[in-house]
Amino acid sequence: MQLAAVLETGSVSEGAAFLGLTQPAVSRSLSMLEARVGAPLFVKGRRPLQGTALGLQLAAQGRIIINASRQASQAAQGFVKGTRGVVRVGGVPFFMDAIVSQIFGEFQIQEPDITIQQSYMNLPEVVAALKAAQIDLGIVAIGDASSGTDFEFTELLPGRNIVACRTGHPLMRKRPLLTGDLTAYPWVAPLPGSPLMSDLQMILMSIGTSELNIRYSGGSLMSVVNFLAETDALAVLPFSVVFALRKENRVTVLPYDIPQPNRSLGIMRQSETTLKPATKRLSAHLVQTFDRLKHTIQRHENAVVWGT
């Protein structure tokens, strides 16, 4: 490393200054190196200093070590500052696909050296993964019941469900909408394990029927949207998901008030685990983004869906 610095700068004193060492210390090291290899490292009588064939080969290796040392130092500093690292996040599928993944993309532009590893999980899987230290954060929906002393929960959005359908669905022109209208069309079932499944059961109870005409199930968010857009099927979805898809103008909200879940979407983490700096930075970004976003979502719902 010292040989590379000296040949890079052209003198022992400048090479020593580059490495933060003293000139006598570098001179002694280079003399010891010449004695060890048994051959001169510098062309005699040349100023600025020039390396022999052997000196140039060793200096090339020294530059690799200098660069690796610098990269290691930058990595350590970045980890401490939270500008480098890996953050593992598990979250509910539809919410992650519709909104959170886009926020992750915005975050990555600001913090290009932070890697995000995302997994699809519902609440039971998130709890297990947090306990096993397999993820750093969970993005899930929980109710008023405490998440337990083992976990902390930070709300991002209050839970709000709607009935979604394609733009131009026949029910969009019908007024007033009656409970029986919902049973006249096929439905899309939520993913197994999704909290939307219990919400669908609440809708069944509210309209006084025991079952709906399920014609599609088990799909991803994109496949559900594609199915809705091509059929007259209905689906229960979080309003925030339909809000995120509003520019595509393929699915919309059926203005029918349904029972609302007593829960919120938010960030779950273990209480007694110290978050890595990069994880803290991502968590803060999510909270700040949703703090702005939830007001926009509420205004959009009032104006577009309910006309207030």
TrEMBL record:
Domain HTH lysR-type: 1-52
Pfam families (alphabetical): HTH_1 (PF00126), LysR_substrate (PF03466)
Keyword hit for Oxidoreductase: no
Entry keyword set: DNA-binding, Transcription, Transcription regulation
CC terms in the record's Gene Ontology section: cytosol
Single GO MF annotation: DNA-binding transcription factor activity
Record family assignment: Belongs to the LysR transcriptional regulatory family.
PANTHER family: HTH-TYPE TRANSCRIPTIONAL REGULATOR YBHD, NITROGEN ASSIMILATION TRANSCRIPTIONAL ACTIVATOR-RELATED
Name of this chain's protein: DNA-binding transcriptional regulator, LysR family
Organism, scientific name: Roseivivax sediminis
